[in-house]
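Input record, target 12 of the design panel.
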């Protein structure tokens, strides 16, 4: 057996020895897990994972390589990855680089050959915690000192949001949308383009006057990393614009809408991450299998005191997965209907946004 080159050290003191892939750097981040069976490229390039090391529960990662067209952002900001087995000989006619090559290019460390089942159980039982990917010869005491002296990030949205506006256009468009970028995934923009929408992506701290200068038919609030209470600029924007123009939020956007209406959010023990979460649509009674990625959730009891109405609920833990204020033309969901990666049960939500904008145009 070849000698180990890296180790993963957890905040609780546990160590796991394995092999290094990707960038040869040491990194301390919050440790989380993802239960998706496919979509590792979309996961590593999802801005919502900024400042996190992700443990993949599916045992084989890298087997279909990396494809240039499938990235969810231009500059991946994930903290690191932990895998059971890293395949460096992919089989896929579309692939352009291997998983490890892209990690190396983007400065992302990865450790493989570890017991990802045990690590996942620790996170499940003890909750998310800080962890470090370090060299095999790094003393345990030094690794623990690195972990305990590294605070969790609180400015992730500022880090990943676009620095200036940019456009994504489609032929013969019917609607103009402004997307507030808190860490937006490209497939959300692709879905809106496919529905006949021109999309103007703006930084998270763009003012209402600057947004309304584009004369939009609707405003979209994107997904993104971190605690929603660290993005008061967007909360204030929602309070200013609600009731004036259709508003649709996904993931972090859902949490920000809830805060703007007076609800509360809380940090979950280990979050929801993966493409297999059952969610009940309270309006239709149908069960949707959804793709999710979030550490924070909306407190259900606090929603009752607002003008928001719960529309979706998670069947695993009862957390609120969707809210709506029809009077204000505002709705949001906690999960990811753009499905990158994941099932496509919830793409109808984009049609709902389109219908809302159509009614707004004809009002």
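The sequence produced for target 12 reads:
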């Amino acid at each position: 057996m070849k000698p180990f080159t890296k180790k993963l050290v957890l905040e609780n003191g546990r160590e796991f020895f394995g092999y290094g892939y990707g960038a040869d750097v040491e990194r301390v981040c919050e440790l989380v897990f993802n239960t998706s069976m496919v979509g590792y490229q979309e996961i590593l390039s999802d801005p919502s994972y900024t400042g996190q090391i992700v443990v993949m529960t599916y045992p084989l990662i890298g087997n279909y390589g990396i494809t240039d067209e499938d990235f969810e952002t231009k500059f991946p900001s994930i903290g690191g990855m932990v895998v059971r087995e890293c395949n460096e000989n992919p089989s896929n006619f579309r692939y352009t680089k291997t998983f490890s090559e892209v990690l190396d290019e983007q400065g992302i460390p990865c450790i493989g050959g570890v017991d990802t089942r045990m690590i996942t159980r620790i996170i499940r039982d003890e909750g998310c915690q800080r962890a470090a990917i370090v060299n095999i010869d790094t003393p345990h005491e030094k690794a623990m000192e690195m972990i305990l002296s590294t605070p969790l990030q609180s400015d992730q949205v500022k880090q990943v949001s676009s620095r200036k506006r940019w456009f994504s256009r489609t032929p013969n468009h019917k609607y103009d949308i402004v997307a507030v970028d808190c860490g937006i995934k490209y497939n959300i923009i692709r879905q809106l383009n496919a529905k006949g929408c021109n999309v103007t992506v703006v930084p998270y701290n763009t003012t209402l006057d600057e947004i309304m200068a584009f004369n939009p038919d609707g405003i979209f609030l994107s997904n993104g990393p971190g605690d929603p209470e660290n993005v008061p600029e967007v909360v204030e924007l929602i309070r200013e614009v609600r009731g004036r123009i259709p508003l649709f939020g996904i993931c972090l956007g859902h949490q920000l809408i809830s805060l703007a209406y007076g609800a509360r959010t809380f940090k979950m023990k280990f979050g929801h991450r993966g493409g297999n979460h059952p969610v009940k649509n309270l309006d239709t009674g149908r069960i949707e299998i959804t793709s999710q990625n979030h550490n924070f959730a909306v407190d259900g009891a606090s929603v009752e005191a607002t003008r928001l109405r719960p529309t979706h609920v998670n069947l695993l833990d009862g957390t609120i997965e969707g809210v709506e204020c029809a009077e204000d033309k505002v709705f949001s969901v906690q999960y990811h209907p753009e499905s990158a990666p994941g099932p496509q049960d919830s793409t109808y939500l984009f049609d709902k946004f389109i219908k809302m904008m159509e009614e707004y145009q004809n009002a």
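Residues 189 and 223 are 12 Å apart (CA to CA).
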